Amino acid sequence: MTALADVLSRLAREGELYERLPESRVRCYACGHRCLIPPGQRGVCKVRWNDDGRLMVPAGYVAGVQLDPVEKKPFFHAYPGARALSFGMLGCDYHCGYCFQGDTPVLTPTSAVPIRALFEAASDVKLAPGGEVRFPRDVHVISASGEIRRVLRAFRHSYRGDLVAVQPMYLPTVRCTPDHRWFATTDPSRERVEEIPAKDLTPRHFLLLPKPAWPAARITLDVAELLTDVTVTFAIPRTLSPTEVIGIVAASDRGESSRAIGARLGKDASYIRHVRSRVRRGRWVYEKTQGLIVEDDAVRFPNEHRPGIPRHVQLDKPLARLLGFYCAEGSVTRSKTRPNSLRLVFAFAHSEQRARDEVRESLTKVFGVGPQEVRRSTTTAITIGKSSLALLFRALCGKGAAGKRVPAQIFAADTSVQEAFLEAYLEGDGHEYPGGKFSVTTVSRELAYGVALLLLCLGRLPSIYVAAVGAEGRIQGRPVHRQPEQFTVVWYRERGAAQKWRDVGKHFLIPVKSVALQPFDGYVYNLEVEDEHTYLAGFCAVNNCHNALTSQALRDPMMGVPPQDVTPAEIADLAKRHRARILTSTYNEPLITSEWAREVFREGKARGLVCSYVSNGNATPEVLDYLRPWVDLYKVDLKGFDDRHYRKLGGVLATVLETIQRLHHMGFWLEVVTLIVPGFNDTDAELRDIARFLVSVSPDIPWHVTAFHPDYKMTDRDGTTAQTLLRAAELGVGEGLRYVYAGNLPGCVGPFENTYCPSCRVLLIERVGYTILRDLVTPGRGVCPSCSARIPGRW
pTM for the full model? Predict the structure, then answer.
């Protein structure tokens, strides 16, 4: 499948809004970033790139076309009720970098998996500018709500700069790019949290840690399915050595008879012929590899005695406890004297007679085997010489001390089974302190994080502590190699007064212990998650990639936006055919495709159409001069009046304010929109600042305050209420703006849907949503019929 970036490479031509520089570099003037682009590289927008000293720009396609009332753009003072044909390209000049270091654990329904591993396990790969996109199959993670959500895409790109090391209390440090947003609050008494960039977190913040919740199921293990890919290699007894067999073949090739060869080796001539025949057919081997044998409702491997073990086993409390004991005390070994047979071993202290009795009885009851008890110098072991059983436990729980894990099936079982596993693991390899404190220690990262996830599923808050230990050590005076890290999981029966975390029902809130910057140069990773667009990084809730569909398709070549080849004349003809009066460049940021928009507008003007831009306002003087002959209407999205918010998006507030001033001065018809987002830009102070600025440019600039709706990748906060819109609108009027509108909550904002004469207050244009009920301005060509005051706009 062709990558989207490759498709768009042919839908491009040399641009006009740029300057050639030495060493084949170029300076782009399309937007306020003024990107300095080396050869072969792309600008921030990802759609303008340097091809050996020429700036290539999009042309000849659209990614979206829509026919709307002009009020939806929104323009309220431009040709009321007219149709606007909008066309969109791909790319965006604002950007956000939300990424994690590769070893960051991401919680799935059955384990904590490094985010790098989720990326690398995906086989479908597409290259994107500056990075790589992969498409995991059937991969799910736990979201901020505690539900299971599907991973749509995994991202990787190079990053050089500071990472923020966020150290939650009770949990290991997580490192991410400074703008990656965490769900946090400074007031743990409130259940509502906000999105906080990592660089803005402080020890005053509490991080959101959800309790996973999904329905329990009755689990039956199909041993044949679990071991379907497992094979065993076993030795075949032979009375002839490999050297002797080679000698037989060589002697036969020299013409020596089978009887003579047999007499020399003490074998019958017929046996020599049999050996020679099997060698020449490739059938003479000293070991054989074979998979599982299924017989009725039992399974075994070829080197095992019948009947083997049951094929179907219920995951109940006795089996869960066996698995818990295995994770703590179990191993799979191969005897030196019986290399064809694997043994399942549970090793206990001599004093742990009750645990040994339980394991022996459960193995007999569940699997029908006869375990043996073997006393050693330091332990007493329960052993079973049954390869199928040994390999089943290895398939479920892993291999070796560093490779152990909580069986995935345990997480889907009911709480009694989960408790049984956890209790047995604690009995085998843990410690209970006075006061209800429990701890287990392991060298397996996967096991430690799995136990912690299991505790969360049971509604308990785990603590994970990582200790670096030397790779060399001594046990009973003997030198041994050991794993470099040791993981301890701690939990409590009840929350103590000294503990600082909070339980708020479906979530825990845990304090931030520290935040620090650390230099980094390497790959960073991110995910896009279905529906909620959140996941758990190191147990804490974070947002995934925040890029919108059309604006980010070049960063994600499989976003599903097929570019459609089209000519400027075809777009203009389409507008005329649908009786549109206005052509609008929108959906993405139109500034970065201005050369293409001008081509379209030239055709539109020739057909008598009005042309408009719906933009974020991140413009340059050069691009506005370039557009002025062709663009009549210009809407600017003023996202707030806090430069910190703009910089999080990759923009600068001052640039947008200068654009608004320049647009008004140059004679564009200008309207400004502010999307009111709770917790982002909805304070009285910020709204007043916006209104005061607009008044300073012109009190006749229409200001639209619109409601945020939780959607796509921002479902973490409530929608904007009508009361908030009314408050914002009233603040605007109070600061002196003559035309303030509260949008996209039809019928809920009273007079702020309508246009009134600022002089006599007569109702001029009555609206419900985007529908015009009455228009007294257009027939009078912009004059109030009551007092003859001129109403600014395009009528």
Answer: 0.60
